[in-house]
C-alpha cells in the first residue's frame, strides 16, 4: 500500500514540474535563423528601407533606370546619352562650330600661339595681317581719335610776392656746396639745439622753409644751421640744381 502511495505522489510531482527547453533551438527562441531574419527586417523597416520578402522577384524590366526623385517616369539608359549628345551639339553650333571646353582640372593647358623663337605671334605682322586688313586698322585708329579730348593750354599765373620764401628759388640762387661756412654763427650747445629743433619738422624742406621765414640764412634764431652754410637740418639744394642742369 505504501509503495502504491509513493508511486502516485511521484507521478503527481512529475506532472507539476516545468518542461526543460531544447537547447538546440536557442535560449528563448524557437528558431535562431528565423530570429535573425525577423531582426534584419525590423531594423530595415525602422530605417525606412524595408527589405523585400524572401524569394521576391522584381517587376522592373531588365535595363530600366530608376526614375529621379519627384519623377514618375522611367528613363531608358540611352535617353540620357542622347540628351547629352543633343546638348553638346547645340553648344557647339552656338560656338561657331567649335566644341565647348568644359572646365576640368584634367583638361590640358591651352596651346599658345608662338613662333619659332618663343615670341607671341601678336608681334608678327604676317600673323596680324592675316586677321585684320589695313582698312580695318585705319577704322580703329579713326575711332580712337574721335574719343580724344584736346585741352587747350593755359598761361601760368604769376606767383604773388607775399606768400613767403621759396626754397626752389633759394636753391637756384645759391652756388656754394653743402657744408661751406658762409654765415657767422654764435652760441653754445649748438649741436644739441640743432638735433632737438630739427626733430620738430617732418622733412628737411619744411625746416628750410621755416629757417628762411625766420631771417635765414643771415640769422638762425632756431639753431637749424649751426655750421652757417645756409642750409637747415640736412636740407640740400642739389636736387633742384640738377633739375635745371646745374
TrEMBL record:
Q: What is the lineage of its organism?
A: Bacteria, Pseudomonadati, Pseudomonadota, Alphaproteobacteria, Rhodobacterales
Q: Does the keyword Lipid biosynthesis apply?
A: no
The annotated regions of Polar residues compositional bias extend over 95-106
Q: Which UniProt keywords apply?
A: Signal
Q: Is-annotated flag, keyword Thylakoid?
A: no
Which residue intervals make up region (Disordered)?
A: 58-80, 94-115
- Which species does this protein come from? Roseovarius lutimaris
| Signal sequence region | 1-17
Name this protein carries in UniProt: Excalibur calcium-binding domain-containing protein
Q: In terms of domain of life, where is this protein from? A: Bacteria
Amino acid at each position: 500500500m505504501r509503495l502504491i502511495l509513493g508511486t502516485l505522489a511521484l507521478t503527481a510531482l512529475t506532472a507539476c514540474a516545468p518542461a526543460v527547453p531544447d537547447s538546440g533551438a536557442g535560449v528563448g527562441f524557437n528558431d535562431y535563423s528565423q530570429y535573425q531574419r525577423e531582426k534584419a527586417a525590423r531594423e530595415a523597416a525602422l530605417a525606412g528601407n524595408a527589405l523585400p520578402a524572401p524569394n521576391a522577384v522584381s517587376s522592373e524590366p531588365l535595363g530600366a533606370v530608376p526614375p529621379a526623385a519627384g519623377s514618375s517616369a522611367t528613363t531608358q539608359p540611352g535617353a540620357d546619352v542622347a540628351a547629352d549628345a543633343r546638348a553638346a551639339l547645340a553648344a557647339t553650333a552656338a560656338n561657331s562650330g567649335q566644341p565647348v571646353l568644359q572646365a576640368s582640372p584634367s583638361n590640358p593647358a591651352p596651346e599658345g600661339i608662338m613662333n619659332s623663337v618663343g615670341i607671341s605671334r601678336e608681334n608678327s605682322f604676317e600673323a596680324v595681317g592675316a586677321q585684320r586688313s589695313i582698312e580695318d586698322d585705319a577704322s580703329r585708329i579713326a575711332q580712337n581719335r574721335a574719343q580724344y579730348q584736346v585741352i587747350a593750354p593755359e598761361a601760368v599765373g604769376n606767383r604773388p610776392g607775399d606768400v613767403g620764401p621759396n626754397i626752389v628759388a633759394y636753391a637756384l640762387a645759391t652756388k656754394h656746396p653743402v657744408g661751406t661756412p658762409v654765415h657767422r654763427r654764435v652760441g653754445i650747445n649748438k649741436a644739441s639745439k640743432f638735433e632737438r629743433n630739427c626733430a620738430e619738422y617732418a622733412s628737411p624742406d619744411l625746416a628750410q622753409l621755416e629757417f628762411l621765414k625766420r631771417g635765414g640764412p643771415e640769422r638762425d634764431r632756431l639753431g637749424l644751421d649751426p655750421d652757417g652754410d645756409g642750409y637747415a637740418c640736412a636740407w640740400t639744394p642739389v636736387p633742384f640744381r640738377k633739375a635745371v642742369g646745374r
